[in-house]
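PROTEIN DATA CARD
Card holder: T9SS type A sorting domain-containing protein
Chain length: 897
Origin: Chryseobacterium paridis
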Amino acid sequence: MRKLFLLFVLFVSLMAYQSYSGQAYPVATCSVGVSSNTYGPMNSNSTADSKNRTAFILRASQLDAISNGTITSTYFRRLSSSGTLNNTANFKIYLKNTTMSDFGSGSPDWATEIGTATLVYDSNPDTAVGSTAGFKQFLHTANFVYTAGSNLAVYLEYTQTTAQASTIGWDYEYGTTCINTGNSNTTKYLNTTGAFGATLTSSNYRRPVIGFDANVPPPTTVPACTTISAPTNAATGVSVTPTITWAATSITSSYLVSVGTTPGGTDVMNAVDVGNVTTYSIPTSTPLNYSTQYYVTVVPKNVVGPATGCTGVSFTTRNIVCPTVSAPTAGATGQSLTPTITWASVATATGYKLSVGTTAGGTDILNNQDLGNVTTYTFATPLTTSTTYYYTVNSYNANSASASCTERTFSTICGATNVPYNQDFESVTTPALPACTSLENAGTGNNWTTYSSAGGSFNTKVLNYTYNSTNAANAWFYTQGINLTAGTSYRIKYIYGNASGTTYPEKLKVAYGTSASSAAMTTVLADYPNVTNGTTAISEIIDFIPTATGVYYFGFNAYSTADQNRLYVDNININVTPVCTEPSALTTSNITTTGATISWTAPTTAPNTYEYAFTTTNVAPASGTTTSATTANLGPLTAQTAYYAWVRSNCTAGNSSWIQVAFTTLALPPANDDCSNAINLVPGGTFAQNAVTGTTVGSTNTPALPASCLSTPTNVAGNVWYKVTVPASGNITIESDAVTGSALTDTVMSIFADCTGANSIMCDDDTGNGNFSKVSLTGQTPGTILYVSLWRYSNAGGGSDGQFQISAYDASLLGTSEVSGSKNDLKVYPNPFSDILNISDISKVKSVSVSDIAGRLVKTITNPGSALQLGELKSGMYLVTLEMKDGSKQTIKTIKK
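Structure generated from the sequence above:
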């Protein structure tokens, strides 16, 4: 005979083991939850007269390992590490084979239930075998034979007549389909003092953590085949040391694992007995090959023999791994023109290939060049100075090559460059500085960085100086070295400004010299001791002539006092002085939906004429319209469109370079900008039911806002119109709300009796969600049309237009029971409810969502039970939406007390 110990334990997947001839056999598994409980299976508490009865049913699928076995002991798990039960306590255990899967929804009669059961234990529970805490063994005085295929009913009775000195906790399993398979009537219990009642009156999801000893007859047949769960069949990209996982099978003592490179093959593992386990990992010392298809078979075995006809799975291992590159470090700068690339060897690799280019993914330097089985490569031909290179190292062997290896970059040492030199800082990742530039005296909180975004008339990214609150600034930013020729006239252009206008005046000096050091900055091109223009950038153009040929560096020196704000420099350009000087200070005005006016300042030496043009992309035009004026009107333009205006000088010797300014035309008013075109709102039962999306972009400002709404009515701009018919209840709520991503965050609403704007009914600023408006009206005449004006709160001329939601609704427009339904006809009860709302048939429900009466989602419950815990909700009306497993939905109106 075989002896089996079956336990139902938390996180140990309900695994039982039986022993025979030195082998172990796992039985059916199931994962459960577990919690502590002071009254199950024994109500060992401080009440003198305390009793409880518990009955529960174990399914046959959980008892396969003890089929036809004689159960000799029962185990329960005790949590307490101290304390004993009084001698007056008594504990009884009854067992019965049954065809019942649960006790039904009624109250079972105790005497009837145990009348055909076997009393296997009747004694003081503290005499049970085992430590104070942990599993307690209750040795049966009468053995019980479990019949294969039956369910097993367990009946427990505990009584005490003397209060316990301390409460003793016992584990129980809770709320899993493993225990109850969706039915709350699998477990019944009764807690009482005084005389026991005749019936078990309560049902819930609790069941004590239980185990058994059983003498089981040896198997007479081979076990059934198992199912391999990992790797999945036909899986790709599998590790070369995979873990093979399979399901446990009953009457099994061990498993035979075979692995081969052909269907049913055994050239890697030939029926290796791995013991009574459900996983096996290929050792790291003997990995599989990369990029190879393998076939796996797992065959259960017992004393009778191995299972027959078992099939397996196939999988393909991943590509050979990418090598780990150690040098140059990722993003390294200042590298030699003949750098060495170094990487770590890869097991089973027979060689490596290298690609190098001057663009991401580029191969213009080396195109997947085979280097052989080495781990370094040194460039034989010098690379180019001041250049970023992109490179990738791949490994390979006879049957695999690495893929998707990380591309890395390095930059070579900086050399001098030629004019034209342009630096707009746009390609730099903030806060880093451009390659080949440098700093001097930065620190103590005073630093030049790349910053995004200064705003105003600056580009997206700028050179930014941020000041320390206690240390004065005297730091330099230097360009890359630039080759200049003696006697040649050059021109430097840049723009500058500060973040705070006159509040924090800044100081900036611009100079050049023969090295990137303050001592070499001997020629000062400009000095600005009081920079107060803010983000309206000032454009500067300076011509200069170097006296000697050589490499020159241009420095920008922030020398403000401590505790300032930000100083900006952008669009640095150095080039040969043009024969024709461009104009400056290009500005826009009178921007409308279809036109704009541009103006500019003439250069010191006026040109013959000017050319101007406009484009929708930031690309200079080939030519433009000629004018002798310093102003021009642009058009026709398209509403709400970004444009670039361009101007250049025309001289006898040629044309200057273009200057440009960006602007955006105004938007066309929305269709409901005027009350005569008010959009009709259809009242619904909730905000979400008939909400529509509108916009204030391009809207004008009519009529005047009622004085009762804001202390400063001028703080509104750009309104649009809606209308709504009052429902039969005479009540209506009109509410606005946000649209994700919209710049509009604050609205003001007025309700009028007509379109004149003179007959105001009510207005509101911030009653709705956040700063959005909401008006609730009662006692209105049904059928009356109300006119709704929605403004953008402008914050005295500021604020941002954008999209919004608006809806009219009243709870009277909801149904009295189901708001929306489907082919399902589920019920929720009780209604009204206090804390728990029950669902009549939870087996059809996939998830539950709860919304307030305005349609806002307040709670979502996935994988719900039949009893919804909603105690945290405030009193009021809610919509409970049941999403069914068949894809349909049912929404029910409920009331929380």
